[in-house]
Amino acid sequence: MKSADVEKLINQVLTKQTMDESALQEFIKAVAQRNIEISLVEKWLKAVHSNGISVPETTQLTKGMMLSGSVIDWQNNSLVVDKHSTGGVGDKMSLMLAPILAACGLKVPMLAGRGLGHTGGTIDKLESIPGFNCSLNPQQMQDQVELIGCCIAAQNDAIAPADGLLYAIRDVTDTIDSIPLITASIISKKAAEGLGSLVLDVKCGKAAFMQTLDDATALAKSMVGAAKGLGINTVAQITQMDYPIGQYVGNSLEVLGSILVLQGKGSKDTLGIVVLQCAELMIRTGVTDSHEQAENLIAEVIANGSALEKFREMCIQQGTEEVTAQALIDNPNSVLPSSEHITEIIATEAGYVSEIDSMVLADIARKHGAGRFTIEDEIIPEIGFEICIERGQHVESGFAWLKFHHNQVLSEVEIAALSNSLTTSSQKIEVNSRLISIIE
Ligand code: URA
């Protein structure tokens, strides 16, 4: 693509004119082929970041990015579904959602990422399972989904390759936090799965990327608009993300927490969010008629062991030895890595749990290896924490409310910060649903 044509595109963004569609598609192609001057890509990203682009332009950008790589082609995609979450502390839903939906007859070809934040991403969590291989190409993903109903694979160069370069340049040009660019990046990869339906979990709160309802709503509307524009039946759920989700946070601990939910013994908070997401997809695909029916079917596939069996099958299909996969679902702690130390943090006064500061807990866990600071950092899977209380619950002084799993010594300052992350109240606390609003 000629430099003058890219300059024209940049000028259209800067002067708030609609970008020429064929020039935009040519630009994306050149980015995917790495056949363009980086300085021009930087300039275009900065223009979009500072001026924004319209919803139709965002859809065109998303479409171009999707078509820059492989798109899975299903004979009939009406039962092909997925979910994306903008991420939070203890957000392990994918690990349960994929096998639950597969057990209910849906097809989930999930692409997921590694984390560059306080805890790992879905792929980091799964990689704490011995042998689990997330490097599947699109054909392997499709074959596995046809065979067992689900897979969880790492994003790779075959899928939306334009995003790879754009994301790397966004990272160094401070243009990450642009709603159209986030939308195109996320939705192009989900659309490349060939989905019929998609549920988006847009987290909102102190421990989320979007901290205000206005920002979360704007992102949700943009993503729903682009996904629908590509023909995907899409809904976004804006959910509360101030306090940690469920009981387990950290990579191997979140695998443990997920298996407990699939065994019917897990946290109600965690299961509640999974049900919210699965039910939307089950209703949209016609598997069930109502939320209540969906909830009953989910309870059934958990009670009869078929969701857990799908999880075991997924592990085996993705490289875990059969004997290890069986041990994992029978006795997860016999397989998952465990930390050298577990430090208990004690409640210093009695009261109703009103706040648990997710970010304080997550930042300390990250420093100990649960998350990354740079993309080269290695995750230590066994690092994390267990929260032994729920919001609204009454705790007595002296109760060990937090168990911190670590290998390095915890400093006095860290112990004090962990302790101070719990706030109790003498008044009863009302606990609302995590669901704040629905955008469709
Ligand atoms: N995840 C992505 O894949 N892209 C973004 O831009 C943000 C989150």
**Run of helices and strands:** HHHHEHEHHEHHEHEEHHHHHEEHEEEHEE
In the CATH hierarchy, the third-tier topology of the largest domain is known as Pyrimidine Nucleoside Phosphorylase, Chain A, domain 2
Helicity, as a percent range: 40-55%
Bound molecules: uracil
Number of strands: 13
Structural class: alpha/beta
What is the CATH superfamily label of the largest domain? Nucleoside phosphorylase/phosphoribosyltransferase catalytic domain
Report mean pLDDT, rounded to a whole number: 96
Low-confidence stretches: none
Give the biggest beta sheet.
4 strands, mixed
Calculate Rg over CA atoms: 22 Å
**Shape annotation:** globular
C-alpha end-to-end distance:
37 Å
Quick summary of this structure?
This protein is an alpha/beta fold. Helix content is 46%, strand content 15%. It has 17 helices and 13 strands.
Describe the structure.
The chain has 440 residues and is an alpha/beta fold. It has three domains: 3-53, no CATH class; 81-330, Nucleoside phosphorylase/phosphoribosyltransferase catalytic domain (Pyrimidine Nucleoside Phosphorylase, Chain A, domain 2); 341-425, Alpha-Beta Complex (Aldehyde Oxidoreductase, domain 3). It contains 17 helices and 13 strands. The chain has helices at residues 3-14, 21-32, 38-51, 55-67, 93-103, 122-126, 138-148, 161-173, 179-191, 213-229, 251-262, 268-284, 291-303, 306-317, 322-330, 358-367, 412-420, and strands at 81-85, 108-112, 150-154, 197-204, 233-240, 248-250, 341-346, 351-356, 384-387, 394-395, 400-406, 422-425, 435-439. The strands form four sheets. A four-stranded mixed β-sheet has the order 1-4-5-13, with helices on both faces. Helix 10 (213-229) links the parallel strand 4 (197-204) and strand 5. Helix 1 (3-14) runs parallel beside helix 3 (38-51) and helix 12 crosses helix 13 (291-303). It is globular and about 70 Å long. The chain binds uracil. Uracil binds next to helix 9.
